[in-house]
Design brief:
The chain is mostly helical and 306 residues long. The chain has helices spanning 20-33, 38-60, 64-80, 89-93, 97-101, 105-111, 118-126, 171-183, 203-249, 291-305; strands at residues 130-132, 135-136, 153-154. Helix 6 packs across helix 7.
């Protein structure tokens, strides 16, 4: 059998787990791209980092092997649809998380109008409704090649091949949903699956900048709270003063005609506690005669008869 290979994780977790800016960005990505957890985002980040690290090492090398590896890397990036054929190393270094997230099968199924939402697209993939180049793929994080993008379709045995399926994509339903979403849309949200990756260049540096601004924000929030609480306190004091003035002005009218309610008289007779019947005292028993004395008494009348 040979030695058992230890399975190691193929992604790296963040260095600082409680960075507020990074947590906020990951939350937005999870909502827009429909990932199940943050682990899927970290996997995409680690694959992108591996591409960039390889490009950086190839920049410094000038041997023949480096040129061959550089050509192979450009071909691979073009096949994945991340860059064009005539791209340079700078193009690879300029890639962002948004670019690689757009190449996932889940986003492509959504963009091809095969699903009603990102979560619906994930469900279709995991339930084996989607084919990629004639094969069923059940991984939503599968990176679709540029050649395979046109082959993404429903499986022939899928119920979604029927146009009358109740959960199939419908333009009218999507328009209504978008109209409802615009009414309840908050500021800064987007309707399409797109993410502004300008804030994803270096989240840790962005976190340092935000850390400096956080103190100012907290000060402004405290001032706003104090400004809201002050008028409320003033109103409460005014209401108390008005109530006191009304009480002083109002004449104290004592009702003389109505007799005061008498408290209910308590029954003076207290029930005597039931006396427990005392058990009759037992008289001490006289000590019984010994068996020898009994025999002597029995013998006396026999002697008298004789």
């Amino acid at each position: 059998m040979g030695d058992i290979k230890k399975l190691r994780r193929k992604y790296t977790t963040p260095v600082h787990p409680w960075n507020a800016t990074r947590i906020g960005l990951e939350k937005d990505i999870k909502r827009k791209y429909g990932t199940a957890n943050k682990k899927e985002i970290w996997k995409m980040e680690s694959t992108l980092k591996n591409f960039k690290d390889q490009a950086k090492t190839l920049l410094t090398r000038t041997d023949k092997q480096a040129n061959k590896e550089r050509e192979q890397m450009h071909e691979r990036m073009a096949r994945l649809g991340l860059t064009k054929k005539d791209s340079t190393v700078d193009d690879i270094l300029g890639l962002q998380l948004k670019d690689i997230m757009d190449r996932r099968l889940q986003t492509i199924v959504m963009k091809k109008c095969m699903a009603r939402s990102v979560k619906h697209a994930r469900q279709l993939i995991t339930h084996e409704h989607v084919l990629v180049s004639g094969k069923k793929v059940t991984s939503p994080s599968y990176l679709v090649l540029a050649e395979e993008e046109t082959t993404v379709s429903f499986a022939p045995d899928s119920a979604f091949m029927n146009e009358g399926h109740p959960e199939a994509y419908d333009e009218e339903i999507m328009k209504r949903r978008l109209a409802k979403g615009k009414k309840h849309k908050k500021e800064g949200e987007e309707d399409i699956i797109a993410f502004d990756a300008s804030s994803l260049d270096d989240p840790e540096e962005a976190g340092k900048k935000d850390h400096d601004l956080s103190a100012k924000d907290l000060g402004e929030k405290k001032e706003e709270k104090s400004a809201k609480t002050k008028p409320a306190a003033k109103d409460a004091k005014k209401s108390e003063k008005d109530e006191k003035a009304k009480e002083e002005k109002a004449p104290a009218k004592e009702s003389k005609d109505t007799p005061a309610k008498e408290a209910p008289k308590e029954s003076k007779e207290e029930k005597a506690p039931a006396k427990k019947e005392e058990a009759p005292k037992e008289t001490p028993k006289e000590p019984s005669e010994t068996p020898k004395e009994e025999k002597a008494k029995d013998d006396k009348p026999a002697e008298e008869k004789k």
